[in-house]
Amino acid sequence: MPCGFLGFVLLFPRPTCRPDEFQCNDGACVHGSRQCNKVFDCRDQSDEAGCETENECEGPTKFKCKTGGCIGAEKVCDARNDCKDGSDEPAECSYEIDPATSTCKAVSGSGPTLYFTSRHELRLMTVDRKEYIRLIPQLKNAVALDVHIPSNTIFWSDLSLKTIFSTRIDTASDASTHTEVIGSDIEAPEGIAVDWIHGNIYWTDSELKTISVATTDGSKRKTLISDHLEKPRAITVDPVNNFMYWTDWGEEAKIEKSGLNGGDRLAIVTDNIMWPNGITLDMVNQRLYWVDSKLHTLSSVDVSGGSRHMLIFDEKHLLHPMSLAVFEEKVFWTDIGNSAVYSANRLTGGDITELARDLNHPEDIVVFHTLKQTNGSNWCQTSELLNGGCEFLCLPAPRINSRSPQYTCACPDHSAMAADNRKCVAVQPPVTSPAPIPNVPTTQAPTQPYTTTTTTTTTTTAATPNASTILEPAQVNHKLSGLPTEDEPSHPVGAYIAVPLLVMSLLIFGAVLLWRNWRLKNTNTIHFVNPVYQKTTEDEMHICQNSTQGFIYPERTMLSMDDLDIA
């Protein structure tokens, strides 16, 4: 390489992309929303690489490093960096190791607490069942549930009130402290998940068939996914890697994933699945757990859809499971068929234990512990630009590789992103050209005709209630003054077409009359109707005239058209 060229490279290094941009392998920058959109935006096609990678790890006893590769689960939290990126030694490793099970245990102090909804109330219970209380009583129809541990806040949805609420846990029993987070444009919020790093809340709506996001105070919101959803229900998030996962128990049941900004959507479980109700994520091992109330199973799979494993098949303890949670070596679930809460070993599926019984429709369940929600970087706040430079929402982008964008901007519903991919612009309605009032298209029900009378003419038009019409300036003036309007004169072209047609019709009609008159003078006919077939026939009979005996009807003879001398 010539020295001059080397100096040029040193003086002009590869460009640094913005936090909301993806850097191609050749150094070029494209907007982060173009990563994994099934379109090659980089010249080297690197923006679509690794978007649907399969995990080579097999079975729940394997751990996948964030940079790729697998190690044994026993090497996680062993105070040694077995992964090159050290992802096998996360913050959760400040557990102690349980010598009996060789799994991580929380250090001494407050143990994990279970929160679960039971239709008209929200309860909490310690895993060892030493404490079991009613946290929030007198609810209407509590269903979904999640917690924001850093702020000690709990969120829940009420299916009857069609609302998502929040409150601090230490004041939860006081109804006056309950805050409405989402209370409009929502029908059936059956699943909610809190992004504790970026301060957002995600929820599914099985009636609207959507997945939406909002800030935890509800001030900004957006519909992220609204296509190809049938019955979305449970949802869980990973704000460290910026992914979310949800279940859909529609006709084509499945488990899907996407980035927390709605990008890089992918179905990861599509077969041997019927009614996937609850779903949860083991952050340390990057494995998803879900319950299927139709198949009576509890299963797990890695976040890429590989190494699927059925832990429990039990019609007795999984009669109609609704939700589940994972912490340490345990998995917990609710069952509305048995009106109970259970636990089991998350690796073997054994040691099934009933923790609570005689509950009123137990639905969602979560684990509350300080190590459950790990710390992470919020690039929307650490960036030099406030809110990442976004005018509306700053949403974390999925971490596909080290060159992935940190976030992308999002706009509210019914608006679009401006050219700078940061500001929002209103969506303009389609422009339509003026047209006569009777021809204005409408989506209303079939119209009813009505008649309006003026001093000079009577006009019949179509009533289109609530339909917006486009008026000419002269018509607007008549509307404002309350004066009657005159009909528009017909276009002269219509006369050019109608007059020749009328003349031709008269000529043909006259010719027919002349022919019939000639025929009647030469032939007498009798017509009769066939009452059986209701079909008119014509039999021609010649009538002979006798001056002395009157009319004589001869025998009926069939005549051919050749016998009728008609020129």
UniProtKB/TrEMBL annotation:
Signal sequence segment: 1-19
GO molecular function: hormone binding
Location of this chain's protein in the cell: Endomembrane system
Keywords for this protein: Disulfide bond, EGF-like domain, Endocytosis, Glycoprotein, Membrane, Receptor, Repeat, Signal, Transmembrane, Transmembrane helix
Low complexity: bias regions: 441-460
Residues spanning the membrane: 493-515
Biological-process GO terms, alphabetical: receptor-mediated endocytosis
Membrane topology term: Single-pass type I membrane protein
S-S pairs: 17-29, 24-42, 36-51, 65-83
LDL-receptor class B repeat residue numbers: 152-198, 199-241, 242-285, 286-330
GO CC annotations on file: apical plasma membrane; endomembrane system; receptor complex
Domain of life: Eukaryota
Coiled coil: none
Disordered, as annotated region: 430-460
UniProt cross-references to PANTHER family, sorted A to Z: LOW-DENSITY LIPOPROTEIN RECEPTOR-RELATED (PTHR22722:SF15), LOW-DENSITY LIPOPROTEIN RECEPTOR-RELATED PROTEIN 2-RELATED (PTHR22722)
UniProt name for this protein: Low-density lipoprotein receptor
